[in-house]
Amino acid sequence: MNFVNSNIPGYIRYSILILGILASGFIFYIGQDIIIPLLFAMLIAILLDPLVTFLQRIKIPRLVAITLAILLSFLILSGLVYFIFIQLSVFNESLPMFKEKFNHVLDQSKNWISGEFNISIESINAQLDKWGKSIFEESGALIGNTLSTITDLIIVWLLIPVYVYLFLYYQTLFLTFIDRASDKKNQETISEVLIEGKKMTQSYLIGLLLEIIIMSVLNSAGLMILGIEYAILLGIIGAFLNVIPYIGGVVSTALPMIVALVTKDSISSPLLVLGVYILIQFIDNNFLIPLVVASRVKINALISIVVVLIFGALSGVSGMFLAIPLTAIIKIIFDRIDSLKPYGLLLGVEVPVNSNFIKKLKKYKTKQTVKV
Question: DSSP character for 7?
Answer without folding.
Answer: S
